[in-house]
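Structural prep section.
Before we set up the soaks we want a predicted structure of the protein with coproporphyrinogen III in place, mainly to decide which crystallisation condition to try first. Input record follows.
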Amino acid sequence: MRSLVSQPTDHAVSAFPKPFLAALSGQVLDRPPFWLMRQAGRYLPEYRKVRQQAGSFLDLCLSPDQACEVTVQPLRRYGMDAAILFSDILMVPYGLGQRLDYVEGEGPQLEPITAASDLVRLSTDGFHHRLAPVYQTVRQVLKALPDHTALIGFAGSPWTVACYMVQGGGSKEWDKVKGFAYRDPIGFAALIALLETVTVDYLAAQIEAGAEAVQLFDSWAGILPPNPFRRLVIEPTRRIVAALKHRFPDVPIIGFPRGAGVMIEAYLLETGIDAVALDTTVPPAWAASRLQVHRPVQGNLDPILVVAGGNTMATEVDEILRALSGGPFIFNLGHGVAQVTPPDHVGHLADLIRSWPERR
Ligand code: CP3
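Run finished without errors. Recording the tokens verbatim:
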């Protein structure tokens, strides 16, 4: 097995000239690379301007010039080590022909798949045609990036995407999707199997277009008890990772099982992912001893600490860096940048991460 932990490396002599990819390969860098989930978005005035010009959020996701522009906006300000394709996890249901709207102030709304008999409404015909603008965005972003900046592609995990498809939007209880999964395990498995297949195809197309790493967002992994967690989170993720590794053995896959609690250890060890993203609840020192000894980790500052800013944020940033920068590590938040985040606070955060070698 390859060694995942190595000595601090000079970026210039690394086999991975991009620090983000070096960290994902297991290298320990003097200054950890960083990017932020939802680094492009409504907290940036320049995003709001393009968003308004685009009309709807879906139009923005499907307009390569505008999607490329908003992908690189945060990099111009803060020089992150990675860009993440600007898109949404609900592009997969859109590609399958499910009706999708983003309602201003209310979030996404889909025509719900309430039972196995509704699966006939979904079709893989035309999936890549409908999503061709996403792949075009990847190509354009790759050309627009500085040499040291990596490009991350992404998808939602089957479970999290199914949550929105069945519930018809966001939810507090997720009663409809859990009800379907528990009431009709075989019918629900057919939905998950369909999502596995198209997620592999979708990520493969992003990789072929130029994505250098991919992240699987499992935002609602944490609402499942242990047995369904294995069946609906770990197993589908393991099969997606195996299929992608078969085709693209060198493209790293990051998994983000938000809210998984103690199950994050089984998730990391059993899915075959290359790195795990930590949500805000995972204690950094625990992650160092239980997770980072196996694989690189990414995370996990509370996004609301970036809203607060100042010393409160700085103290917590240093605690994370102290616990995790001795192993392969990518600094990130534990969830997406909040809409009310003052852009200057993100600048302060970037400075704190970059100046860590002077404080360590
Ligand atoms: O991280 C990035 O900068 C890349 C872009 C990205 C978006 N969504 C843009 C977006 C990524 C990686 C996502 C992932 C995503 N989308 C997740 C997983 C991560 C998480 O947050 O848990 C989920 C669950 C979704 C589904 C989704 N999309 C919801 C629930 C919403 C509405 C909530 C909201 O913030 O409005 C969206 C819309 C969305 N996706 C926005 C952005 C920038 C806001 C839309 C707008 O500009 O009006």
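Observations: The two ends are 31 Å apart (CA to CA).
Flagged for discussion at group meeting.
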